[in-house]
Amino acid sequence: MKLIVKSKSSSLHHKLIAFKNDINGTYENIKKDLKEDLLMSLLKEQGYIYAYCMKKINQDNSTIEHIIGQKYKDGNIDLGKENELKYENLLAVCLGNSCKELNCDKSRSKYQEKRPLYVNPLENRIMTNIKFTNNGLIFYEDFIEIDKIKEFKNHNSHLESENIKYDIQKILNLNCNDLKEKRKVLIEALKKYTNNWSDKEKIRKKLQIYELKYNSEYEELCQVAIYFLSKKL
Prior knowledge:
By secondary structure, the chain is mainly alpha-helical. It has helices at about 10-25, 30-45, 80-85, 105-110, 125, 145-150, 160-170, 175-195, 200-210, 220-230; strands at about 65, 90-95, 130, 140.
């Protein structure tokens, strides 16, 4: 997962406000050209990767997600409806088909009506505690066994940290085999390239590549590389 910094000055932010206020617009009747412009703005903002799986995305293999799900209600408060046209609530997302089973937004869809998303990619305090194991598993704060995470199903009775762990493992399915294997392959390649993490100069050069955007794009799985390279300096 990677931190996404939203642009408060985005022209799309103001266009969405006008669309909602001027004609009482909703996300369901949003104009095609506005939706296309919105997706492009989100892609550029994110460096053409998806925050959860860090897969490369573009206009052809992405769609738009609501961080606060469109159907989510907190008691009698329809938070989904209130936030459906807020630019800060939107992300460009992959199609959720990286694994044999659904992942990311597509995996999350069946939970959105009753459960908020705790592992918010806009929250720096959360993203700085996302970690990875050498064999490609993603986890939050401290690693615990998957069977234990399954016990955190009832979000109202658990701590935020436990709900974040459940989001990663179950809601977003970020440890599905294909995603885990992609991360493992990258980690092993970085280890080999840097001579078992011993070549500090190569580590610094590689770290810069993954930290910066080139031609407005981040490298795929960039945060995995940043996590390991930073630890070795």
